[in-house]
Amino acid sequence: MRNQENPQQTQPDQAQSNSTPEIDPEETDLSYPKVSIRVGLGLAVLGYLFFLLGARPSLFGLDRSRVIGFVQISVFLVGLGMITLGSYLTLSAMWPTGKKTIAAEIGMRLISTGYVICVFTGMADIFGLGSHPLPNVFFGPLQARGMSIGMATIAIGFLLLIRYRRINNHAADQDEPGKNEKEKKTLTHNQGLS
């Protein structure tokens, strides 16, 4: 048919046009929900500023005591929560709906577990689990270690939540009856490449 439309096309051009595999536009669509990513990144940056305000208030000219007290602990835990939530929203937007791997699901749970560890170790004195009575709340070395463990758990969760390779959205379509053999071979070939 191509030779009838364009009689000047040579044999190599014709062979090349016939051998090019057809690519499904949905399969190569690499667009992500930009609004979710922007909201998540904005929340993470705002959370980082809150975290800095709580951890190092001297950067903002607000340092009033030599120890880290209840207000500072609360502010940097709120900031850490905002960082965690914003980063989670950003990384979750990279996954198609309902297509997360088991590692990503485990990562989601590790992120929330790490934040719970941070809250309970940071607020240990307030909950009555710490070594200082309630009016004299003090962020000590054991609490700092617990916060480090919680943040490491959050970081491992984020590493598991990252989408390292593209999932083939048409893998379920492969077993449908009525597909011709050429489409099945193309799907199998595309799965092997990803």
If you had to describe this structure to a student in words, what would you say it looks like?
- By secondary structure, the chain is mainly alpha-helical.
- It has a domain at 33-163.
- It is built from eight helices and no strands.
- It is elongated and about 85 Å long.
- The chain starts with a helix and ends with a helix.
- The mean pLDDT is 75.
List the SSEs and their pairings:
Elements: H1 2-5, H2 11-19, H3 25-28, H4 34-55, H5 70-93, H6 102-122, H7 141-161, H8 181-193
Characterize this entry briefly:
The protein is mostly helical and 194 residues long. It has 8 helices and no strands. It starts with a helix and ends with a helix.
- Stretches where pLDDT falls below 50 for ≥5 residues? none
Strand fraction equals under 5%
Q: What would you call the structural class?
A: mainly alpha
Q: Report Rg.
A: 27 Å
Shape: elongated
- Fraction of residues in helix: 55-70%
The biggest sheet amounts to: none
Work out the helix count. 8
What would the average pLDDT be, to the nearest integer? 75
Calculate the terminal CA-CA distance, rounded to whole Å: 34 Å
Got a strand count?
Answer: 0
Query: What's the SSE pattern?
Result: HHHHHHHH
Features:
single chain; 194 residues; mainly alpha; 8 helices; 61% helix; elongated
